[in-house]
């Protein structure tokens, strides 16, 4: 009887651990607040994250580099844990630290778009640590391009 329980648990664990995360999708990158701390500006904002998986995923942390082709603007991190509903979306708070020099150079690169009211393309690269059911955790790479309205 005891071996049947252990076998059942092992089969269940192997089935759950073989579930691969489908990549999360990012959209609606919005800035809420800006603070100037000398040479660094700190932007806080919200990012809508879509979970295409059939099970809830808890996003524990994420560290990203934000760039505007060839220029690295700064580092971004997720501020708090958030549970994404299955086949749904959730808003995640983030913090972006940008050096003033990089912000100025990025603004000069996008001057044409600024004048015409266009969009800037921003690339987010990094890792997210996500867990399912609080047990199975996995880090996976993120490489997303987003368009920001200027």
From TrEMBL:
Protein's UniProt keywords contain Signal: yes
Source organism, top-level taxon: Bacteria
Pfam families: LEA_2
InterPro entries named among the record's database cross-references: LEA_2
Swiss-Prot/TrEMBL keywords: Signal
Gene3D superfamilies membership: 2.60.40.1820
Signal sequence, renumbered to the chain: 1-22
Keyword Zinc: no
Residue ranges of domain Late embryogenesis abundant protein LEA-2 subgroup in the record: 47-142
Protein name: Late embryogenesis abundant protein LEA-2 subgroup domain-containing protein
